[in-house]
Amino acid sequence: MAIVHFQPMAMERVWGGRMLETHFQRPLPDDSSPFGESWEMVDREEAQSVVTSGDYAGLSLHELWCSHREQVFGKDLPSTHRFPLLIKILDAREDLSIQVHPPLRVALELNGEPKTEMWYIAAAQPGARLVVGLKSGVTAESFSRAIEEGTVAEQIHEIPVREGDSIFIPSGRLHAIGAGLVIFEIQQNSDTTYRVFDWNRLGLDGKPRELHIEPSMASIDFTDIEPDMDSPNDSVIAHCEHFLVERFELQQGQSIGNLRQDRFSLVHVVEGQVRDEDGRVWPAGTTLLITVGASELSSLGNATLLRTNIP
Length: 311
Description:
Elements: E1 3-5, E2 9-17, H1 19-22, E3 35-41, E4 43-44, E5 47-48, H2 61-67, H3 69-72, E6 85-92, E7 98-100, H4 104-110, E8 117-124, E9 129-134, H5 140-149, E10 156-160, E11 166-169, E12 175-177, E13 181-188, E14 194-197, H6 213-219, E15 236-239, E16 244-250, E17 255-256, E18 265-271, E19 273-275, E20 281-283, E21 287-290, E22 297-299, E23 303-309
């Protein structure tokens, strides 16, 4: 039984920055490129997380899920071919595109993947905001006209945010991350995104990025009017059929382990440091898999942690 860590995968994005390096003191692949995403745990055909050390060193997340599922993850889990969650840290130096992920029905029709996710704000510059949902009075017809006229920004609902906030983003919710935010994202294992509007920006190749107007219009929930940021229910900050996410504030010597003895948990270190039973110290910005039967993680001083489980 073990604490398992995977090698993060840094992804260049036109809207990205260097906060993974400056906020989390994490080395990046080069000295100047904009890295907008770090994929902490991923099991996809085009991208695989690999264990960095210990008994499972060198194995991929897919190999663990397929060949060591009960030993590592536990019993009575989804019978999916791939690990059902994807964990990211996002660094938005600039605004992300206004986008939507398709609900299941639409995803099946468009040969895409449904994607429900949640965001936890790990760092926020003054004035940072999110785009979530639509303004009061917006309809599918008025939104379609706004796309043609280039006035989408007048139709969207913006929410000011600060460190420690969180919000649930179900499939169908129009959304965008604003500049100046570092976010932990827990999501379904999906990479289907439809861009509605990209602020007339050019991509890394110097060309306008592709928009997906028809699938976006088919996916947007036009009843999602002016939502607010979420309020926690005790420790729980997000709960749906795909994931359960909790937030904890630990003090020196306090510990955290699995939610259930017969299941794994994921722990995301937002602030502070934790130590495992082997004496390894894990800093802020780390995601760890606590296998079935593994010992708890102990806090070194004050620490803010998230814990993710599959319901």
